[in-house]
Amino acid sequence: MFERYGFRHIMANLILYNTVMGLAASAGVLLLVVFSQRGARAPADVRKAWAVVFGALGTVLTVLGVHLNVEWPLLGAANVIFGEPSLMFGVLLLAAAVIIYRTPVEEAKSLSEMDDGISLSDLWDVEPLPRELAVALRPVAYVGALAGVMVVLLGWGGAAFGEIVFRPPTTEWPTGIVAGTGLEIVYMTATYTLLGLGAILLPAGLHNPDRLRTAGVLLSVSALLVLFITLISFLGHVSLSAGVPPGGIPWPP
After folding, report:
1. Are residues 193 and 10 in contact, defined by beta-carbon separation less than 8 angstroms?
2. What's this model's pTM, rounded to 2 decimal places?
3. What does the CA dihedral 85, 87, 88, 91 come to, rounded to 10 degrees?
4. Domains and CATH numbers, the chain
5. What share of the chain is helix, strand, coil (3-state, %, to 5)?
């Protein structure tokens, strides 16, 4: 397989850190949805704490995204399909973190007015974002919508032209169980489609609670799908690299 596609150098330098990128990306999307309901009207110190977390996740995605796009340590198109959305999302998270940190909110609540917990019903009871944040985050949302189009195209492109991207090796456990069945292709294509659609709808939801709810549902579902496959892949990558010395993972066809 490697000889056919010209990836002999990958056999000695295959680096599988896209799992930690998936964890950071799914956490970032879920936290953005929760922030819109639980953090946007919080006191300034609390909003700054959210911004710091977004900045940390954005840094992870940006640094690893740059390396993935420049070095191409994965198999062919996987570097594009995983690397470019991660890099873009990382940069947007950093921009959002700075905006959230620096933007004052007149309608902010006090600590005594804030609830201690969160339930699933809170995610469906959507309130409009504070006007200050909605206006300040608008440019980020516009760029995010364009990135959403990119994610949809990459998902379908990966399914149509780069099937190997979404197909785990048979030696990987437990994802190798479904290798070659097509299930993993449907799963990842659906995940990318939902994520892209949520990002596309986000600008329209900044000032509209109903559209914000729709975007939030799409983003939440796609983030949970990314999180699930990421957690499973942690086991898979350990199973692939068990007993293999540093410097590369021989990935049999």
Report:
1. no
2. 0.84
3. 150
4. 2-109+137-240 (1.25.40)
5. 75, 0, 25
